[in-house]
Structures are given as structure tokens and as C-alpha cells.
Design goal:
With 279 residues, the chain is of the alpha/beta class. It has helices at 60-67, 73-86, 92-98, 107-116, 119-127, 132-135, 144-158, 164-179, 189-195, 200-211, 213-228, 257-277; strands at residues 5-9, 15-16, 31-34, 37-40, 49-53, 236-242, 245-251. Helix 1 packs parallel to helix 3 and helix 9 (189-195) runs antiparallel to helix 10 (200-211).
């Protein structure tokens, strides 16, 4: 049986994937090449040892799956860009199956988005392990100028280091907001308001109010109403948001049953006034 591997040095590799992954190549492990392409150990010096795997005996999909069994979608995007750069083909469906992922024919569109995205945005996607499904809304932006506008706003969002769920939600709202813009990006007033925000909380509220102006106006009115309704003495009331729901939150303190009865009666008066104000 012919040998599938030979030992050489990194300097013998004519092409290199040079994928920037978060995982660190073990220092005790030699570099690995498939045919003349360096596929692992990109930080190794030219004179260091490299294991060469024959392309006649092992498919590229097998070698990469063995070296990188756990990849995020951003990792796969980087790999796709590197493979294209060195001019070699790969069966992505087979490769993904080998590392436990299901390939989608829409992924190449997202690969191009990752290629175009600013590095700081890609880094946030990578650190938060954002999935293809969570990136999918961006595909709706098919205008180059509009996409650059979204990138600029997205960079401002991730500069606050939001959690994955909050960041993904805000970024999706931005996609919706830009696509709803009849001027296709020429009117930048909303952008400037968003970019002027200096905290994550105010940024989230600003984007949400721009995306859902009617709901935001209603919340503003209800918040003002909560402050002036005839609440019992000592009661604290506020219009708040819990997840996707908004409503009146009321806090009471009673030191006797009689006091509680009086407070309940006053709450009923406040409820009647609330209903009247919303007619």
C-alpha cells in the first residue's frame, strides 16, 4: 500500500490557507499540508516540520474535517474564503456532514457578506458564535450602498459589546429599518441619531423607536400616564417592558389588612382613570 504521508518542511508548501481561527494550533503538533497546500499550523516557521498528505489518497474534505472537527459558521466562512483564494475546490455538503453540520445552498451568499464585513464586526460574530440563521436577515440587503450603511451602524452596535441575543436583535431591526427606507439610504437623519447614542440601552431604545414608531409612541404616552394616575400613597408605578411584552408595573407596601383594603380601593380608582384616558 502506498504511503499517504511524507515528512517535509513548511517551506515546501506552495500555497497556504492561512485561516485565522480562534483555536490555537498545538505547539507540539507539526504543520499539516494536503498536496502542496498548508492546511494547518500556519504559525510554524519555514524550517519546521510539516506532514504532507497525498491528494491521491485522502480527500481535502477528510483532512480538514479531521483537523477542524468543531467550527462555527464564521469559521466555515473564513475557510471558504481561504479555499477560494488558493484555487482549490471542496465538496461543502460532504465536509459539513463530516463535522456534524447541515449545508445550505444559501451559505455562499453569507460567505460573501462575511468577506465584505468590517473585521470588528466579524470578530463580534465570531466571539458570539453567531449562526447562519442569525445572519440570514442581512441577505435581504441587495444594494451595495445600503449594505455599507448597515455595516457602519452595525459597527456602532457591536462597539458596546452586546450579548449575542441583544446584538442579533438590534442588528435585525437595523436591516428592517434600512429596507423600509424609501430613499434607499440617501436620508441619513435616522443614522445620525443612532450613531449619536452613547450607551447600549439608549441605542437599543433608539433603534427600536425608529423601527417601531407607533409602538414606541404608545409606550411613551403610557409611561407619561403612569406617572400622573391617582395611585395610593407610597405606590410606585411605571410602564415597563419584559421581553416582548409591555405593561404597568405597580409596587405596594402594606403593614395591615385595613391599609391594603384602602390601597386596593385607590387602585380601582386609578384603573378607572387609566381606562378613561385610553378611550
Amino acid at each position: 500500500m502506498p504511503s499517504v504521508m511524507k515528512i517535509g518542511t513548511v517551506s515546501q508548501c506552495k500555497r497556504r490557507l492561512n485561516i485565522d481561527l480562534r483555536s490555537v494550533w498545538p505547539s507540539v503538533m507539526p504543520a499539516v499540508a494536503w498536496s502542496d497546500i498548508l492546511v494547518g499550523g500556519f504559525n510554524k516557521a519555514e524550517i519546521e516540520e510539516c506532514i504532507f498528505v497525498s491528494s491521491d489518497e485522502r480527500a481535502l474534505e477528510d483532512v480538514l474535517a479531521g483537523l477542524y472537527p468543531k467550527l462555527t459558521f464564521i469559521d466555515i466562512s473564513k475557510l471558504a474564503i481561504a479555499v477560494e483564494r488558493v484555487g482549490v475546490s471542496i465538496d461543502w455538503r460532504t465536509f459539513c456532514a463530516k463535522i456534524g453540520l447541515r449545508w445550505s445552498d444559501e451559505w455562499p451568499i453569507l460567505f460573501q457578506l462575511v468577506r465584505q464585513a468590517p473585521q470588528k464586526l466579524v470578530t463580534w460574530w465570531e466571539m458570539r458564535e453567531v449562526s447562519a440563521r442569525e445572519l440570514a436577515p442581512i441577505k435581504a440587503i441587495n444594494d451595495g450602498a445600503l449594505l455599507q450603511r448597515w455595516f457602519r451602524l452595525a459597527l456602532h452596535v457591536v462597539s458596546f459589546e452586546p450579548s449575542k441575543s441583544e446584538g442579533v436583535q438590534i442588528l435585525e431591526w437595523l436591516v428592517d429599518l434600512l429596507l423600509l427606507d424609501p430613499d434607499k439610504g440617501r436620508d441619513r437623519c435616522a443614522d445620525q441619531k443612532i450613531l449619536a447614542e452613547r450607551t447600549l440601552a439608549s441605542l437599543r431604545d433608539r433603534v427600536r423607536s425608529e423601527r417601531f414608531p407607533v409602538a414606541s409612541q404608545s409606550e411613551t404616552l403610557q409611561s407619561a400616564l403612569a406617572a400622573k394616575l391617582p395611585w395610593p400613597t407610597g405606590a410606585k408605578a411605571a410602564w415597563v417592558r419584559h421581553g416582548d411584552r409591555t405593561g404597568m408595573e405597580i409596587k405596594l407596601f402594606s403593614n395591615s389588612a385595613n391599609e391594603l383594603k384602602k390601597q386596593i380601593a385607590l387602585l380601582q380608582n386609578a384603573a378607572s382613570e387609566w381606562a378613561r384616558q385610553n378611550e
